[in-house]
Amino acid sequence: MKRSPATACGRLLLSALACLLAAAANGGAARAQESWPSAGAGDPLSGKTRKLDDYGKIGHCDETARLDNFAMELQNEQGTKAYLLVYMGRNDMPAWKEGLLKRAAGYLVETRGLDPERVKTVFGGYREQRTTELWVVAAEDPAPEPSDTVEVKHDRTKAYQWDDKIIEVEFNYKVEDEGEAADEDPGEGEGDAEGEAEAAAEEHPEAESAEEAELRRETEKYEIAIERRGVIEEEDGAFDRPEAVASEAAAVRPADGEKTAGQAEPAAAEEAEEPVVGDVRVKLWWNVERFAAALGAEPDSRACLVYYYGVKNADRETVLAIVARAVGKMGEQLGLKRDDIILVDGGKTPNPSIELWVVPRGAEPPKPKPNKRWNVSFYSAPGE
């Protein structure tokens, strides 16, 4: 029988769809039940102690997906407990331990709504690479035991790095349609409307939530920021202009060779050389209270800050101003005197930052490495 072209195309489409579905099913099974929790009343694994999943340094969205699947499995097995067995990597810094232990458990409780009494975190020690194991544990069973660990020792006669704090640069700018701006009279209506809005906001302030109040207090305590007007560009010299803003700018400009009604043709040279100017904010998050414990573990040790600066907005002068304020906060948070802190100029780098080191008595301060590979730590919560 001769098949029509339409029938043949339909069969090909159905075959392709079947292949895609089969591939998706196999992929989901290969990732330890990540597609959907399968344990239930008829599942032989239901209620049994088992490792459901494990992962290392992965993307935040991937980690969120794995924890979501873990939470669903636990919700289907109400009599079980959740155990997160966390191993630090050989090159992870001591300052990261507390955050690594809290981040995933905090997500399961605060975002997925699990009972905090069911979620347990165990520090498994060190492995070559950072690893988190997700365990479903029966109510009567003990916590899982760490495995495949490696021994990591610090030479207490030499300086060692405790943390690495990145110096961030934030930009704020707005591309406006000059034609619309020219048509509007700033003296008519706009000023009055803004004044009325500000007066209304002052008369009826919105109540601050507990979370907002906590964030404000932490920001006041830990953040060091320097704000000014400046040219918007990254340390490598490239403009930090998101595609959305670039598209908006292109939309309000005429295409090459075209002119809009009543608009003069701009000078090409001037348009090419005009820098993008906006509000620049250079900031550092400086929560270093736990650094005191590391210093206290080494009698007569000193703190050392190795600071690296860029050539644009986070230049040497700006970074030195941030370092001066960081030293002041160390006096507030740790009770350290200026003589207890060694400052080392690390030089120029595309990644401005401040390293925190512990220098034991008699040890040499660290030598700067401006061309070092950036050691990414972690975000405080998955999915950020």
Task: Describe the overall structure.
A 4-stranded mixed sheet has the order 1-4-2-3, covered by helices on one side. It has 384 residues and is α+β, with helices and mostly antiparallel strands. It is built from 10 helices and 11 strands.
- Which percent band covers the strand fraction? 15-25%
Sheet with most strands: 4 strands, mixed
- Would you give the CATH topology of the domain at 154-175 and 221-247 and 276-375? 60s Ribosomal Protein L30, Chain: A
- Identify the CATH class of the domain at 154-175 and 221-247 and 276-375: Alpha Beta
Structural class: alpha+beta
| Quaternary structure of the protein | single chain
Terminus-to-terminus distance: 59 Å
Strand order of the largest sheet: 1-4-2-3
Number of helices: 10
Radius of gyration: 28 Å
Helix percentage: 25-40%
Q: Calculate the mean pLDDT score and round it.
A: 77
Indicate the overall shape: globular
CATH architecture of the domain at 154-175 and 221-247 and 276-375: 2-Layer Sandwich
Give the total of beta strands.
11
Low-confidence regions: 1-41, 176-182, 237-262
SSE string, helices as H and strands as E: HEHEHEEEEHHHEHHEHEHEE
Draw up the topology in text.
Layout: H1 5-30, E1 50-55, H2 60-76, E2 80-89, H3 97-110, E3 119-127, E4 131-138, E5 160-166, E6 168-172, H4 178-183, H5 190-203, H6 210-222, E7 223-231, H7 243-252, H8 268-273, E8 277-285, H9 291-296, E9 302-309, H10 316-334, E10 341-348, E11 353-359
